[in-house]
Amino acid sequence: MTNAIKFTKTQSVRKISVAITASIEKPPSVRDVDIKWFPSRTQDLNKDLTTDPEWGNGEQVFINLSVRDTGRGLTHDEQSRLFRKFAQANVRTHVEYGGSGLGLFISRELTELQGGEIGLYSEPGKGSTFAFYVKGRRATAPVRTSGRRNEGSTKKLHINALDTGEAGTSTSSASIPIAKSSIASPRTFKVLLVEDNLVNQRVLRKQLQKAGHSVALANHGQEALEHLQNTKFWEGNVDAEDLDVILMDLEMPIMDGLTAARRIRELEANGVVVRHVPIIAVTANARKEQIQTCFAAGMVSPFLPH
User: Fold this and answer.
1) pLDDT value of position 9
2) How far is residue 137's CA from residue 196's CA, in Å, rounded to a whole number?
3) Are strands 117-123 and 127-137 parallel, antiparallel or unpaired?
4) Which of 107, 115, 106, 113 is nearest to 135 (CA)?
5) What's the burial of 246, exposed, middle or buried (CB within 10 Å: 0-12/13-18/19+)?
6) Average pLDDT estimate for 113-142
7) Which stretch of 13-22, 94-103, 120-129, 159-168 has the lowest confidence by average pLDDT?
8) Highest mean pLDDT (candidates 29-33, 105-109, 170-174, 285-289)
9) Per-residue DSSP letters for the chain?
10) Under a CB-based contact definition with an 8 Å cutoff, are residues 282 and 204 in contact?
């Protein structure tokens, strides 16, 4: 989905459609296009993971998901480079769109571990369809218990799913019962969100704004430094805009989060930045040595989104 948004944003027709289906047979194609499945290395292992006891004994099924976009499409040569570690369609992809070339590789690994395959169909100038399928087993529906919950002391919290604002995307909502309480309104903050992934930007900004916070965006570390120059943290900017905290991604093009954090701490030591800037790492890197690296760069505490 993230790649579809990236590669359609400059097109005259911007449309993204997502389909999810289930079948009892291995899917040869997806929605009237001939998907070229990437060769699966697990086929040589001759082991069907769905025969393990934890999968149950229901009928074997295949869950199929595809994302179709009207982006610029890919040439045959570009397609051959995909789904490999640290590989992107061409040398300009990272400069124009960011990324590390790991997303599709990891998706391939996860798909194969679940007895499936991943692939695509693409035409230059027309768009692409990326698809995958995984194995599963039909489950027995849980038995519903009778009786009604006492709803006198609860209310519904409505949470909207991702809404990118792009054509072809959609929203959904869910209701979660929460207990009534008299919690005081929390303090609000002026936040600088530094993140190169457009979907992550929109999701985090929406969550923060719903909580009452003001959010400014930067696409990489260099933009974060440029934004900082226009705040009260910068020497001589007495009447400039205020800022409470920076939420910093780690892996970004142009300047990564660790480099940006180190640079801000250097500017503090030199007196160019006149007071301490709180920087919180927004990352899924949760190993001990990765957390220590964040601390060493001058970040307050890593925040792991779920």
Assistant:
1) 78
2) 38
3) antiparallel
4) 115
5) buried
6) 86
7) 159-168
8) 105-109
9) -HHHHHHHTTSSS--EEEEEEEESS--S-BTTB--EEPPPGGGGGT--GGGSGGG-SSPEEEEEEEEEE-S----HHHHHHTTSTT--SSTTHHHHH---S-HHHHHHHHHHHTT-EEEEEEETTTEEEEEEEEEEEPPPPPPPPPS----TTEEEEEEE-----STT----EEEEEEE---PPPPPP-EEEEE-S-HHHHHHHHHHHHHTT-EEEEESSHHHHHHHHTTBTTBTT-TTSB---EEEE-SS-SSS-HHHHHHHHHHHHHTTSB-S---EEEE-S--SHHHHHHHHHHT-SEEE---
10) yes
Decide: pTM greater than 0.70: no
Most confident of 59-73, 93-107, 165-179: 59-73
Q: What percent of the chain has pLDDT over 90?
A: 29
Sign of CA dihedral 261, 245, 222, 251: positive
Mean pLDDT of the chain: 77
pLDDT at 14 over 50: yes
98 Cβ partners below 8 Å, 6+ apart?
A: 6, 196, 197, 252, 253
pLDDT of 78 over the 90 cut: no
Residues making up the chain, counted from first to last: 306
Better-scored residue on pLDDT, 224 or 107: 224
Q: What's the rounded Cα separation, in Å, for the pair 158 and 166?
A: 22
Token code pair at residue 144: 């519903």
pLDDT of residue 101: 62
Q: Using CA atoms, how far apart are residues 298 and 300, in angstroms rounded to an integer? A: 6
Our CA dihedral for 270, 271, 272, 273, rounded to 10 degrees, sits at 110
* Residue whose C-alpha is closest to residue 38's, from 137, 110, 98, 127: 110
